[in-house]
Amino acid sequence: MLSYVKLSIAVLLCCLITTGSCEKCTQRNIEVFEKRSGREIKGQPEWLVTVTNNCTCTQTGIVLRCRYFSTTENVDTSLLVPTRDGMCLLKGGQPVKPYETVKFSYAWWPPTVFYPIRSNVNQGCSCQKCTLENLNVFEERSGREIKGQPQWLVTVTNNCNCTRTGIVLGCKDFRTTENVDTSLLVPTRDGRCLLKGGQPVKPAEEVKFSYAWWPPTVFYPRDFNVNLGWLPCHSVRQGVLFL
């Protein structure tokens, strides 16, 4: 009986890891940041506003409270539309993707306090299966030379809508005449390279670095962990799950 329970738990974890899991999104996942630009527009101080969807699901119909909103600067109505009831519709109600930022500016004193009060979420949203196949590596020549060696530009993209950590690339025989930022890439002695110090790489995030050598190194994804929220991270290697 105990073995059956352990097996059931293992199968459940395996399913959760392969499919992923998005946390429940609410307006609390929408962050509003506001700061002075240092400029004045028609005698009024200008304010820069950044609204970020900090959820792994797309949100639509985002409404901000913006009581007494006034401005001497024209605001792009595709980004913000004030209504008569002290509300502002963000981005025309259009989708705001996971970790997407919407930025606008206005000019007035005192500043408006913006805060989210309503949004719509696709409640069926869930993280797609994260595999080595949707962790993409793109490499191209820059056209420059560093100490007699051609420079290569490398872009690693997380094309899964779950955050990944501990990304390891295969990088056998990696060499370079160009200093590589160790916060982006750290080679080890076993033909592997740790990307971004193992720190989180968000959905659709790109990590870029460059190096110089001939022949170029063939980088390819080897390992990663998936952030499943309340579950611990489990390693995925060559498409095989290790619990």
At a glance:
One of its GO terms (biological process) is cell fate determination. The protein is mainly beta and 243 residues long. It contains 1 helix and 16 strands.
Can you walk me through this structure?
The structure is a single chain. The strands form 4 sheets. This protein has a 6-stranded antiparallel beta sheet with strand order 11-12-10-14-15-16, with helices on one face. It folds into 2 domains: about 25-120, Sandwich (Immunoglobulin-like), CATH 2.60.40.290; about 130-225, Immunoglobulin-like (Sandwich), CATH 2.60.40. With about 240 residues, it is mainly beta. Strand 8 (about 135-145) and strand 9 (about 150-160) form a beta hairpin. It has one helix at about 1-20; strands at about 30-40, 45-55, 60-65, 80, 85-90, 100-105, 115-120, 135-145, 150-160, 165-170, 185, 190-195, 205-210, 220-225, 235, 240. The two termini are about 20 Å apart. Mean pLDDT is about 80; it is low at about 1-20 and about 230-243.
Q: What is the CATH topology descriptor of the largest domain?
A: Immunoglobulin-like
* CATH hierarchy, class of the largest domain: Mainly Beta
Shape: elongated
Per DSSP, what share of the residues sits in E-state strands of 2 or more residues?
35-45%
Strand order of the largest sheet: 11-12-10-14-15-16
Q: How would you characterize the largest beta sheet?
A: 6 strands, antiparallel
Number of strands: 16
Overall CATH architecture of the largest domain: Sandwich
Low-confidence stretches: 1-22, 228-243
What is the count of distinct domains? 2
H/E element sequence:
HEEEEEEEEEEEEEEEE
User: What value does the Rg take, in angstroms?
Assistant: 23 Å
Number of helices: 1
Helix content: under 10%
The chain-level structural class is mainly beta
Assembly context of the chains: single chain
> What average pLDDT do the residues reach?
81
Keywords: Signal
InterPro entries: TPD1
GO biological process, one term: cell fate determination
Signal peptide: 1-22
